[in-house]
Amino acid sequence: MKALITAADVKTTAENHQTILYVSEESIITPAANDAAKELGVEITVRSLSSPNQPSASSLDPALLAKIVEEVMVFLKQPQCPLPPHKEADPCGLRIVKGSHLILEDFNTGNPKDCIKIKELFNKKECSNYSVGIMTLEKTDYTSTTTKDEIDYIVEGTLECCVDNRCYTAQAGDTLYIPAHATITLSTSDKVKLLYVC
């Protein structure tokens, strides 16, 4: 009997913090499953059915097995692709991002001294008018020119915001509005966590 692979199967794989979903070559993969796999960073891998002519594990060369194990160990020590946020979704469109599973990723500004981490919570597919995420800055002076209007809510810490040589201080509980095309420097001597909406 052929197995039907759906978007729900892909979602379950991602929720279990797995990045590969193995299916048999007889499986039927729905278009929605392929779309979900791209969105959630899950690779659908087809495994052929085992053949009676395939060698058993006991007939493999021990030196080859040792090399395979060594390569796997090297791979496991490498940084893995970041997992998407764990979300609950209702058919009406309601979404909940689980903060307990949230892992922020390094944000490359081009300056190795910048210590910024970020995680997009809702993308344009889920929230057509906005991009929403969490950002942290630690002992950083970061200058950028915004391409879109942005609202930042300071969750914790103190942030200095400078524009055209004028500086303002925002603390936990404060909200910033940064207009599109403004060049602004965000600075902190400690650590700041903020929620951004673009």
Automatic annotation (TrEMBL):
Protein name from the UniProt record: Ethanolamine utilization protein
Alphabetical list of InterPro entries matching this protein: EutQ (IPR010424), RmlC-like_jellyroll (IPR014710), RmlC_Cupin_sf (IPR011051)
Native source species: Desulfitobacterium dehalogenans (strain ATCC 51507 / DSM 9161 / JW/IU-DC1)
Any coiled-coil regions, as ranges: none
Any single Pfam family the record assigns to this protein: EutQ
